[in-house]
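pls design
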C-alpha cells in the first residue's frame, strides 16, 4: 500500500533513499492522488506580476558611478572619438562585393547606347 516515494499522513516516516544516482525523470512524487515525475515540478518559472505591480526599489535611489571613474571613462571616450575617429566604424572593402547582375549590366549598356544616339 505505501511505497518509499509517497507522503502518507500516517505515523510512519517516509523512507529516504539516496537519489543522487537517479535521473529526475525516474523519481516520482505523490501529489494528491497523482504520481508525477520530479522533473515536471522541479523547474524554474517566471513570476507573473499583477497589472498594478509597482517595483519597491527606485532605480534613481542607487548611487551613481564614482565621479573619478566616470570622468576617466568620459575622457577615454572623447579621446577615442577625436584621435581615432574611424576605429569603431566597420571597415568595408568595396572589392569584396560581387559584380552587378549580367542582365542589369546589359540594360545599362543599352540605355547608355540609346542616350548616346539621342545626343548625336
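designed seq:
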Amino acid at each position: 500500500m505505501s511505497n518509499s516515494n509517497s507522503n502518507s499522513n500516517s505515523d510512519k516516516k517516509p523512507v529516504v533513499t539516496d537519489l543522487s544516482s537517479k535521473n529526475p525523470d525516474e523519481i516520482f512524487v505523490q501529489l494528491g492522488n497523482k504520481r508525477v515525475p520530479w522533473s515536471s515540478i522541479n523547474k524554474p518559472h517566471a513570476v507573473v506580476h499583477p497589472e498594478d505591480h509597482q517595483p519597491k526599489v527606485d532605480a534613481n535611489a542607487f548611487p551613481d558611478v564614482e565621479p573619478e571613474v566616470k570622468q576617466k571613462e568620459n575622457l577615454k571616450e572623447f579621446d577615442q572619438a577625436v584621435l581615432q575617429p574611424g576605429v569603431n566604424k566597420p571597415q568595408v572593402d568595396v572589392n569584396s562585393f560581387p559584380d552587378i547582375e549580367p542582365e542589369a549590366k546589359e540594360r545599362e549598356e543599352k540605355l547608355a547606347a540609346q542616350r548616346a544616339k539621342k545626343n548625336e
